[in-house]
Amino acid sequence: GFGTETTEEEGYEVFDLIKQEDLCTFIEELAINLIENETREKIAPEFWKNFNNRDNEVDGFNKFKTAVRDLYDSVMLLLPALRKLERLRDHCGVRKVTYGEETLCTDQDEDEIQCGGCSQELEQCHCDEIMATFNETNRKLIELDILEKLAGDVITALIHVRIENHVQEMCNASFSCSYISSLENWLDTVVLGWLSRVYMYSPVQDITHQAINKFKQKLLHHLYETYTCTRIDQMFNIIIEYPDSQPAVEDLRVCVQKTDLRGYLTRKLEQTLVTKLLHQGVNTPDVLTAYVAAVKTLRQLDPTGVLLDTVTQPVRKYLRNRHDTVRCVVTALTDEGPSELADELVRCQVQNVDENSPLEDDIDNWESWEPDPMDADPSKTAKSRQSSDIISMLANVYGSKETFVTEYRTLLADRLLSSISYNTEKELRYLELLKLRFGEGHLHYCEVMLKDIYDSKRINGHLTSDLNFDLIRKQEFPTTALILSAQFWPAFKEETLELPQIVKDHFQIYTEAFEMLKGNRTLNWKPHLGFVTIDIELKDRKISLSVSPTHATIIWHFQERLDWTIEDLSHQMQVPATVLRRKIAFWQSQGLLREVSTDMFVLVEDTPGGRCKDSMTVDMSCEDEESDSPMASAHDQREEELQVFWSYIVGMLTNLDSMPLDRIHQMLKMFASQGPMSVECNVQELRHFLDRKVREHKLLFSGGLYRLPKT
């Protein structure tokens, strides 16, 4: 028969023979039919025969128990045949689906089948004995009235450990779904079910049931505390993965209300943010990304805004001290690529709320009013904490909108002056969105800057097309200009550059045409700013490039002389030698200049190796390795602003002889107001400024008083 015992070697010889004769499918179908017949004709009728003539429920249960036992024994007799058939299928490579299953049985020995309760072989299962012993022991302890005294603490500790392990196993590093309901259900069914079995022999079941329900509340509280602590430990990852982690945040919000862990959450999260973010190893854009994610997460976790205000305070302070924070924020707001801040700029609605005014809550919602948490800052109203959008919060990192708007103005100037085209549509769109956030007054100067670009395009077109000015005939090459209203633009980087005479002549022709058009207005040229499109003809090729005026002037002089020293060229161009060497490096990278000796450069007309002998044209644009901004650096602009104070300070000390720092600061706040915005200076910054003047011997300091040195 099919169940005849054979050795493993004999079995595989039979399998090889079956495979050679291509009988695998036939044997499989034959075996399946035999098993089906056995089941249909013997096993099934014997199973159902047990349920005939049931006298009572107890008798019915005993018959059911007998039926299941006989069914199990019958299936176990068929199991060896099914295993051999499964090995035959594997040997022949058959993957036929039978009754919806790809395999007939698991490939394991009978002695490997173990009970899930006692871990013994099924034939030697001790679960019934263990449960009987467990129940008998508990019954005796209850009758002696010592179960609670003897094992109460152990039972409680055991359940606590089991809860903690279960929470860790179930919720570790998974934030995309809620676990509170499933944990509560597990506690009700598994933990309390086991606890009920422990006390099932209590003589006073009503009292025992009440005690278990009371104990359930304590276990629920421990469950909430365990789950809350687990989520608090994972809070940084939850923040980074937001909004995918919204279910975990909602769970934590519910659990914090049920536990006394708000203070622990505040301290732990604040410490985690400091450890993970506030060091030089994390660049500013990454800190900002985490900060934005934290704002969104904590707003869901605590709608009052108190937790957000407290936890992110070190982050705001750290960002305030990073020199590139505002520029990174503004860049993220106005970049074309995907950006959370750019999306926020478009998505958020305007909320005209004065955060410093004590606004009353809407009287229509007085029934749902709740007091602020105990850790709330009393100087801020609940409405102001809840109304600030993310962009306003980032702008207010510096305490005012002026610093943010000033940085945006500088960045806008960079972009407008770095673009060859006159297209301002994108910048105008961003400006309109920012005006909704910060008001038109703060961004008026930016409007003028964009208008300057538009007017420059119109003026250039008019001067070129109008025959009355005749620019095309007077100029050997076309010259256009960006005509800027100087008082509305940030300070430009001051550099010297002596242009070739022919270029200066073209500037003069353009200036005269502009004066004819505008009457009483003239132009003050910035020769180091702008773009120059040049064609360079060499022996074997022609190159077209768009470069800066300094780069163009350098290569221009090499058509007059084939070699220049740094010193001679620096004198000719009125450019510092260090700056000139950096600029020459671009032409070296293009293969047009070569340093033959220290500070001596020559023009290279032939392509190295004799390549590209036929004439060719290469179109390129110069990307200076420095990526120089035409605007003065933030430090230089600030230094220029602080110089505004110096004339006031000299005047005050001349009239009053000597003054303390605080008095000087108070008077400066009254009198010093220059430039497009009020120049602000806090006490610490003023102290550094005055101390520098002391080191420069322009001031004297003694006894806490500053005075001018005697001349």
From TrEMBL:
<feature type="region of interest" description="Disordered">
    <location>
        <begin position="356"/>
        <end position="384"/>
    </location>
</feature>
<comment type="similarity">
    <text>Belongs to the cullin family.</text>
</comment>
<dbReference type="InterPro" id="IPR044554">
    <property type="entry name" value="ANAPC2"/>
</dbReference>
<dbReference type="Pfam" id="PF26557">
    <property type="entry name" value="Cullin_AB"/>
</dbReference>
<protein>
    <recommendedName>
        <fullName>Anaphase-promoting complex subunit 2</fullName>
    </recommendedName>
</protein>
<dbReference type="InterPro" id="IPR036390">
    <property type="entry name" value="WH_DNA-bd_sf"/>
</dbReference>
<dbReference type="GO" id="GO:0031625">
    <property type="term" value="F:ubiquitin protein ligase binding"/>
</dbReference>
<dbReference type="GO" id="GO:0005680">
    <property type="term" value="C:anaphase-promoting complex"/>
</dbReference>
<dbReference type="InterPro" id="IPR057975">
    <property type="entry name" value="TPR_ANAPC2"/>
</dbReference>
<dbReference type="GO" id="GO:0070979">
    <property type="term" value="P:protein K11-linked ubiquitination"/>
</dbReference>
<dbReference type="InterPro" id="IPR036388">
    <property type="entry name" value="WH-like_DNA-bd_sf"/>
</dbReference>
<feature type="compositionally biased region" description="Acidic residues">
    <location>
        <begin position="357"/>
        <end position="375"/>
    </location>
</feature>
<dbReference type="GO" id="GO:0051301">
    <property type="term" value="P:cell division"/>
</dbReference>
<keyword id="KW-0132">Cell division</keyword>
<dbReference type="Pfam" id="PF08672">
    <property type="entry name" value="ANAPC2"/>
</dbReference>
<dbReference type="InterPro" id="IPR036317">
    <property type="entry name" value="Cullin_homology_sf"/>
</dbReference>
<dbReference type="GO" id="GO:0006511">
    <property type="term" value="P:ubiquitin-dependent protein catabolic process"/>
</dbReference>
<dbReference type="Pfam" id="PF25773">
    <property type="entry name" value="TPR_ANAPC2"/>
</dbReference>
<dbReference type="InterPro" id="IPR016158">
    <property type="entry name" value="Cullin_homology"/>
</dbReference>
<dbReference type="InterPro" id="IPR014786">
    <property type="entry name" value="ANAPC2_C"/>
</dbReference>
<keyword id="KW-0498">Mitosis</keyword>
<dbReference type="GO" id="GO:0007091">
    <property type="term" value="P:metaphase/anaphase transition of mitotic cell cycle"/>
</dbReference>
<keyword id="KW-0131">Cell cycle</keyword>
<keyword id="KW-0833">Ubl conjugation pathway</keyword>
<feature type="domain" description="Cullin family profile">
    <location>
        <begin position="333"/>
        <end position="588"/>
    </location>
</feature>
<dbReference type="InterPro" id="IPR059120">
    <property type="entry name" value="Cullin-like_AB"/>
</dbReference>
